[in-house]
Design a protein that fits this description.
The chain is of the alpha/beta class and about 725 residues long. Helices cover about 35% and strands about 20% of the residues. The protein contains 21 helices and 23 strands.
């Protein structure tokens, strides 16, 4: 075996250099996402089985999690009508027989031999016969006797078909044996004592049941160990982001905004609506930031239709009025163009130049825009990633607005700071972010929230239907279009896929145009359509010459067509609730009643009649039946984006909800943003306190903090230093 590099620290050492782990097992571990010793010790068990007592088969009770010892009697495998494999293994002790059953795990048949001594741990089922479904299995030596068994709270890991739970335990324990001599606690002893925290090495040992006396491995000890590890994960994220914020505050900053003057007052006076109390409150917070002599880093959250663009535009006008440039960066060309149109329309005759710069801005238009920006002339520029590419100079950039920040990733907004004068930054999102996730992902930003909708906005009526209701849905769209309204029909894919059997937008556009709405004008928009064609279709839809827009989620944010009153989302079960809420926000922007229809193409769940409710008696009430047991039913019950976001986070977790793996932040291996909010608050408090008093910390503590943060962030955050 090849020896590891001499200079490499133990925690970064590849797993294949551990005792008992060769190239083949290392390859199997990589399927679980494990490549290094650090990965292995942070591969936490998803549960612990209580194996402290062996039960006799005759004493097993329905529904209880039990451990039973026996000798393998029979091993059998059979195919179902759908060619799924069911493996059945019976074991017997002196009092009876119990079966272990594994569904669609054909490799389990090869693991058992008649006469083997084994231990099953699992939940007992008594019907149709005594059994355990997918029990954990411990294979025992020939000379084993039940009286010798010293059971523990056994850590159970998620594994692939190439690894057993026992094999994973051996790998994790080998990794801990190598890592523990190098692992040190970085929190001061006083902090550990004050908050009743176990030290980090002890927490790792306990959670993995490694090198601990059997009598000490109790549920209470496991809970304390988990709490310490949860706080560790939250702490390094909080500390890294707070230090990033602290360093930003220390950067050279010479922008000096002026209080709102005649330009801002004229704009507000000529608005065709009155600002909400929430908009006025948030504008006060932004104004206070802009007038301070340090860079603004503020997150502006606002539900769909809450008026974020107007707030951002007023902030940009403050910058322009003070002689600075202001930029707003959007994740897509459609959204950038929409912002350009909206801002130009809102400004009216006010003497404020507005330019647009996207990937499709070429030729004379691009040269003219680049020249105008390079001159430092006060103006507003709207763009995409093109704003942060080489060749774009904004020497007087005073305010950078980043819209739908999570579409870019946390670190990307910093590229707008690479200007001669560091600008203030306002980050906007229409995706409601639960508090715990906001503290984690946006921990380096101050937060403002628009929690009030403008007057006159009617709640969107939302319904969930099964595919067999589609003919009525199409007829409903036809009636709405006949009234002069418009509709969106959204699909999850552009083209057909061999992997995902979902309806594709392109094929459905052809089908709807030919056989469902042959007499109506339909348009098609998706991410692969050339920008010119996409803009042409969107302009036609906005103008009303296209009645039905077939599209993908490319229209998720920023598209503003007040005349659109219906949205149909096919394959809605494939979307997260937060994304569906964003899509729903494209309708209901005018004064007319609006309707969102979510087509649940997922597996049909047999529901009693009482589990379904009829829609209110408006506009063909027989159109809709909403299944209240469906995950999608939350959309029918509320239009509050923050309530929906909390539900979505609970259902899908932060990674899928927000693309947290793209944020540049360390992953959460054991912490849960829903269950562990108290630990998150404590971790942030500890990070704030240690950062405030870092100068008084012992050098040893500062060195350990620095090491822990560097391991967490690597190169994603440069210059992390606790000193």
């Amino acid at each position: 075996m090849t020896s590891p590099p001499a200079e490499q620290d133990v925690l970064s050492q590849p797993l294949q250099f551990l005792k008992g782990v060769g190239p083949k097992r290392a390859a199997a571990l990589r399927k679980c996402g494990l490549a290094t010793v650090w990965d292995a010790i942070n591969y936490f068990p998803f549960r612990h089985e209580d194996r402290r007592a062996i039960s006799l088969v005759r004493d097993l009770k329905e529904g209880e999690l039990s451990t039973v010892y026996g000798i393998v009697d029979t091993v059998a495998a059979r195919k179902t009508r759908r060619w799924k494999t069911i493996v059945t293994v019976s074991i017997k002790d002196a009092s009876g027989v119990i079966f272990g059953i594994w569904f669609n795990q054909p490799w389990m048949e090869e693991k058992f031999k008649k006469g083997q001594k084994v231990i099953f741990t699992g939940k007992v089922q008594s019907a149709p016969y005594l059994s355990m479904s997918s029990p954990s299995v411990e294979f025992l030596p020939e000379d084993f006797f039940p009286d010798e068994y010293e059971g523990v709270l056994m850590p159970i890991y998620r594994v692939t078909e190439d690894l057993t739970v026992r094999a994973m335990q051996h790998v994790v324990h080998a990794a801990l044996e190598a890592a523990l001599p190098q692992m040190v606690e970085y929190l001061p002893e006083k902090v550990l004592a004050q908050f009743n925290l176990v030290d980090l090495p002890a927490a790792y040992k306990m959670i993995h049941a490694f090198d601990c006396p059997v009598e000490t491995i109790t549920p209470e000890a496991m809970a304390r160990a988990r709490r310490r590890l949860v706080i560790d994960e939250f702490f390094v994220i909080a500390m890294g982001l707070l230090m990033k914020r602290h360093r930003t505050d220390q950067l050279p900053y010479s922008v000096r905004h002026k209080p709102p003057g005649d330009l801002v007052r004229a704009f507000i006076q000529h608005l065709p609506f009155v600002l909400t109390a929430a908009q006025k409150r948030v504008l006060g917070e932004i104004k206070e930031d802009l007038l301070m002599h340090k860079p603004m880093n503020r997150l502006l959250q606002g539900d769909v239709g809450s008026g974020k663009t107007v707030v951002a535009l007023i902030a940009m006008l403050m910058a322009v009025e003070g002689g600075y440039q202001a930029a707003i960066m959007a994740p897509t060309e459609i959204l950038a163009r929409q912002h350009f149109i909206t801002i130009s329309k809102l400004l009216g005759d006010l003497p404020v130049p507005v330019n647009v710069l996207t990937g499709s801005t070429t030729g004379p238009a691009r040269r003219e825009t680049l020249g105008s920006l390079a001159s430092g002339m006060p103006q507003i520029v709207v763009g995409t990633h093109a704003l942060i590419q080489g060749g774009v100079e904004m020497p007087r950039l005073g305010l950078a607005v980043v819209d739908e920040q999570h579409k870019f990733g946390v670190m990307q907004r910093n590229k707008l700071r690479d200007q001669p004068e560091q600008p203030d930054v306002l980050v906007m999102t229409a995706t409601p972010i639960p508090r715990s996730l906001a503290l984690t992902v946006y921990g380096d930003l101050s937060a403002s929230k628009l929690d009030e909708l403008p007057g006159g906005r009617k709640p969107i009526k939302t319904f969930v239907v099964r595919p067999d209701r589609l003919p009525r849905v199409w007829e409903f769209i036809r009636r709405e279009v006949a009234k002069g309204h418009q509709a969106y029909i959204v699909y999850p894919l552009i083209d057909e896929s061999d992997v995902l059997p979902l309806k594709p937008a392109t094929a459905m556009f052809n089908k709807l145009s030919a056989s469902v709405f042959p007499d109506l004008e339909l348009g098609l928009v998706h991410g692969r359509i050339p920008a010119d064609e996409k803009n042409r279709v969107m302009r036609a839809f906005a103008a009303g010459s296209i009645g039905i827009l077939v599209c993908t989620t490319v229209i998720e944010v920023g598209v503003d067509v007040p005349n659109a009153t219906v949205m149909v989302v096919e394959e809605a079960h494939r979307f997260g609730l937060a994304q569906l809420h964003q899509l729903r926000g494209r309708i209901g922007r005018g004064g007319a009643e609006s309707y969102c229809v979510l087509v649940d193409n997922g597996p049909d769940e047999a529901q009693p009649a009482a589990a379904k409710r009829r829609a209110p008696a408006v506009h063909q009430p027989e159109l809709i039946e909403t299944n209240t047991n469906s995950r999608l039913a939350a959309m029918a019950q509320t239009c509050d984006g923050f309530v929906i976001a909390e539900e979505d986070l609970k259902m899908r977790g932060p990674g899928e909800f927000f693309g947290i793996e793209q944020t540049g932040l360390p992953a959460l291996h054991i912490a849960d943003l829903i269950k562990d909010e108290e630990e998150l608050k404590l971790a942030r408090h500890l990070a704030e306190t240690l950062l405030d008093y870092r100068e008084s910390l012992k050098q040893e503590t500062r060195d350990r903090l620095r090491t822990r943060l560097h391991r967490a962030f690597g190169e994603t955050v440069r210059g992390v230093d606790a000193g």
